[in-house]
Amino acid sequence: MVNSLFRALSHPIRREIVERLAAGPATVGEVSGDFAVSKPAISKHLKVLEESGVLSRVIDGRTHVLSLETEALAEATEWMVRQRAIWTRLFDVVEDHLREEQG
Amino acid sequence: MVNSLFRALSHPIRREIVERLAAGPATVGEVSGDFAVSKPAISKHLKVLEESGVLSRVIDGRTHVLSLETEALAEATEWMVRQRAIWTRLFDVVEDHLREEQG
DNA sequence: GGTACAGTTCACCAAATGGTTAACAGTTTG
DNA sequence: CAAACTGTTAACCATTTGGTGAACTGTACC
Q1: What is the CATH number of the domain that holds A34?
Q2: Three-point CA angle B11, B69, B9, nearest 5°
Q3: pLDDT tens, residue by residue, B20-77
Q4: Minimal Cα–Cα distance from A10 to chain B, Å?
Q5: Do B73 and A81 touch (CB under 8 A)?
Q6: Which of A91, A94, B13, B83 is the most buried (most CB within 10 A)?
Q7: What angle do the packed helices A12-22 and A39-51 form, to 10 degrees?
Q8: Across the interface, which of B10, B18, B81 has its CB nearest the CB of A83?
Q9: A9-25: string of b/e by CB count within 10 Å (b at 16+)?
């Protein structure tokens, strides 16, 4: 759902977590160490990201290894790109119109 | 700021407003008519979108005409596309690795 | 078995969010 | 000028969000 995806990306810490995981999988502790908030806070952010499908976790013993789920993020990207395509096309129409008027 | 941009796009009504305005400028009343919430609620959504730079308004008499601000939205799109590029590259590396192992 | 470790869940809190109705400000029009 | 119209602001409310410290669950290790 594109809905929960945008929600998930609306918090700066969650976007930073995404950027962190874009460099490769990491454990909860590693991710947590990068931020000035408590572990429970990070745990909640991770839950939001997981429920929206942005990341997945594999439990290995007592550590949880987090990885990005690229397919889910592609959905939100597509919305953005599709919107941009519409705006761009519209913008071109306006530009053409102006050019015609001046020419 | 990419921060307020994602925040602005995190609410379904606000994304629908963006989609509506992608088809061309509209007044507050026209936009408001499309949704099952009160006008003050829409007014607040419009304020969020305006403050994040997603749209601009021109006051014409007693009506406000709203237009999309494509540059602002491009910022958020770029973040998404940049992220996707990183994931894709990473994914390719993994694929290459698998191909190598099998070959 | 006992202790350290990784991580989540619980109980709580303050602030932000999203909605409402009522009142307001400015513009148009009879 | 008065009434109608467009839109915002104000005051209020319930819910969600994002954070905390403390307690808990499960794994690793001596």
Answers
A1: 1.10.10.10
A2: 15
A3: 998 899 999 999 999 999 999 999 999 999 999 999 999 999 999 999 998 888 877 8
A4: 5
A5: no
A6: B83
A7: 80
A8: B18
A9: bbbebbbebbebbbeee
